[in-house]
Specification:
globular; Rossmann fold; 188 residues; eight-stranded mixed sheet
């Protein structure tokens, strides 16, 4: 496989910090609820759909919609969402998605088993799929990762003396890949 074909270019505001995704890698996106981690993970899906390939998200709560994907630059005609998968079937569902997609974002369940996570890492490497575990403070990723994207919610502009209209939020992002670390913002 040519070096160019082994990567997917990350579009949008995350690109300066993470310009490309290497096929077969694991990119953990971590952040508290509401911090912007889901938006960061969806921008990685946009890397696949921009290249004319497929991406998928495993959404436990069934709250992720097409509007969020489109806002992150995902081509919805090449985007699948698996909803309300029981946590005990999580590893099986992720494994199935890894077989047919270029990028798979999977919310990590509260009690994810290390053995399941290690098997998914191996499957992603074998299938040359980018696995994006979406982890939170109570749901850590229990296996290795090529890259870690830490997202922290930033300030909400629009508030003046405790009142006003919230307009947008610019999360702070830290990307750690091996010994390299970059910090920036996820501005849209």
């Amino acid at each position: 496989m040519l070096a160019r074909a082994r990567t997917l270019t990350v579009p949008g505001p995350l690109r300066p910090l993470l310009p490309e995704l290497v096929r077969g890698s694991v990119v953990v996106v971590e952040g508290a609820p509401g911090a912007g981690a889901t938006s960061a993970a969806l921008s990685l899906c946009a890397a696949a759909t921009a290249a004319g390939e497929w991406a998928a998200v495993l959404d436990f709560e069934g709250t992720l919609g097409g509007e969020a994907g489109a806002a992150a630059g995902v081509a919805l005609e090449r985007f699948a969402v698996a909803r309300r998968v029981p946590p005990d079937r999580w590893a099986t569902a992720v494994a199935v998605l890894l077989d047919g997609m270029s990028v798979v974002v999977a919310e990590v369940p509260r009690h994810a088993r290390a053995g399941d996570a290690h098997r998914l890492v191996a499957r992603a490497r074998e299938r040359q799929t980018v696995l994006v575990p979406l982890a939170g403070p109570r749901t850590p990723w229990p296996a290795t990762a090529t890259t870690r994207v830490h997202v922290e919610g930033g300030p909400w502009p629009g508030l003046d003396a405790g009142c006003g209209l919230l307009t947008a939020r610019t999360p702070r992002v830290r990307v750690v890949a091996g010994t390299r670390e970059q910090v920036g913002v996820l501005a849209g």
